[in-house]
Amino acid sequence: MTGLGRTRRILVVDDEPAITETLSLIFSRHGYEVRGAHSAEEAIESIAAWEPDLAILDVNLPRMNGIALAIVLQANRAACRVVLFSGHPGTQALMEEAAKKGNVFEILSKPVHPMFMLDYVSSLLSEPRPG
Questions:
Q1: What are 51-100's pLDDT values in tens digits?
Q2: How much is the pLDDT for 2?
Q3: How far apart, in Å, are the Cα atoms of 16 and each of 19, 96, 102, 106?
Q4: Which of 58, 59, 56, 6 is nearest to 33 (CA)?
């Protein structure tokens, strides 16, 4: 819950439905309001009407990758925290390219243990936003 009494909202974006559904179920069972999306485009539609507090984004999405989505999300919903995760070794090059443009993100390696993800998200949401 936020100080305003609203349940924290988490957007889970992964093109593998089993991952999206599993993470969504885990977070909803721990009191979060969760929506899932299977592409960056679907996620952008979702955030237009629903303001997540945190987005968990797979880096390797079809068409628009998760890093590009993170940049769009931060430009449109600056208060939304972003967690990137990936199981692909080529992700580092994408991260470095984004960093050159001033977009620095942390990334978690798949597979991520559900309890670690819960703890990580809880700690991110408890920190005050910089600025």
A1: 899 999 999 899 999 989 999 998 888 889 998 888 776 666 666 776 77
A2: 44
A3: 6, 25, 29, 21
A4: 6
Query: By the 8 A CB rule, do 82 and 54 touch?
Result: yes
Six-digit token string for 78 = 């600056």
In the three-class reduction of DSSP (H, G, I as helix; E, B as strand; rest coil), residue 130 is classed as coil
- Other Cβ atoms less than 10 A from the Cβ of 98: the count is 18
Token pair, residue 58, equals 């797979």
Torsion of CA 51, 17, 39, 125, to 10 degrees: 30
Give yes or no for a contact between 105 and 74, defined as CB atoms under 8 angstroms apart: no
Assigned token pair, 6: 């609203």
Q: What is the CA 21 to chain-centroid distance, rounded?
A: 14
Q: Which phi and psi angles does 117 have, rounded to 5°? A: -60, -40
Prediction pTM value: 0.85
Alpha-carbon gap, residue 20 to 13, rounded angstroms: 6
User: What DSSP string describes 57-93?
Assistant: EES--SSS-HHHHHHHHHHH-TT-EEEEEE--TTHHH
